[in-house]
Amino acid sequence: MEKRWSKQFREKRRDPKPLCAPALFKKVFFRAAQEYYARSDLDFEVDGGNKNFLGHFCRYWNRDPEFEVLENISLRKGLFVFGSYGTGKTSSFRIVQNMSQEYGFKELWFPSISAQEVVDKYNSAKNKDDIIRYYSKGTFLFDDLGSETVGNNVYQYGKEEIFVRILLDRYRNFESLGTKTHITTNLDFSQIEHRYGRQISDRFVRMFNRLRLDGPSRRK
Q: Beta strands of 98-220 (E only): which ranges?
């Protein structure tokens, strides 16, 4: 049975949109999720806390037009996944990355980095603008945005919220090139505005589909 649905999944790659039948994509995602959580000796469960989220999440990555039935939702935008601690926000993205690698699905691949790692690279770089430019281009997942410390550039800005610069640049690239940004965070939009400013939060409305993932922590 496993070989059969694996073969079907690969064959559907020829279809430009969606990638495959919605039920098949969801089935493969759930299988990948079970394998992912099993590595940490955890069970993957679908319940009232994540069922709605996972439905939207799978439709998005499958490029299913049904994803766009809600207002201000678009497959052209990136994902802003927010909610409380330990609910599976980062894990959901990692499962999609695993699917991309296992099935050779380039359409599902994206590089990812924690927001704090970006700040650490910025702090240690001699040419700090190179870090800003690098993370302003191409599709990226910035994990745990809002948990990072401020950047340190004593020669020019002093203490700096470097994601203000990165996200403004990424917004311009989104508008001109369609560049997607994905984010996981424990902050909602009002908290994003409080930390990074109104200029950022206004652009987030255009750049992102907001998906909430709340519920109890799924970590042991």
A: 112-114, 140-145, 151-153, 158-160, 181-185, 208-212
Burial class (CB in 10 A: 0-12, 13-18, 19+), 125: middle
Tokens 């281009």: give the residue.
137
Q: Which letter, b or e, does each residue of 58-69 get, where b requires 16 or more Cβ atoms within 10 Å of its Cβ?
A: bbbbbbbeebbe
- Cis peptide, bond prior to residue 16, ω within 30 of zero: no
Query: What was the pLDDT predicted at 157?
Result: 60
Q: What is the pTM of this model?
A: 0.89
User: Is the separation of the CB atoms in 58 and 25 below 8 Å?
Assistant: yes
Question: How do beta strands 208-212 and 78-82 pair?
Answer: parallel
Domain spans of the chain, in order of start: 2-212
In this prediction, residue 196 carries a pLDDT of: 94
Q: CB burial class (10 A; 0-12, 13-18, 19+) of residue 30? A: middle
* CATH code given to domain 2-212: 3.40.50.300
Mean pLDDT of 87-111: 94
User: Phi and psi at residue 85, in whole multiples of 5°?
Assistant: -65, 140
21 three-state secondary structure: coil
pLDDT of residue 13 exceeding 50, the answer is no
* 43: its two tokens: 């069970």
Beta strands in the chain (DSSP E): 78-82, 112-114, 140-145, 151-153, 158-160, 181-185, 208-212
- Identify the helix (H) or strand (E) that includes residue 117: helix 115-124
| CA gap 105, 161 in Å, rounded | 35
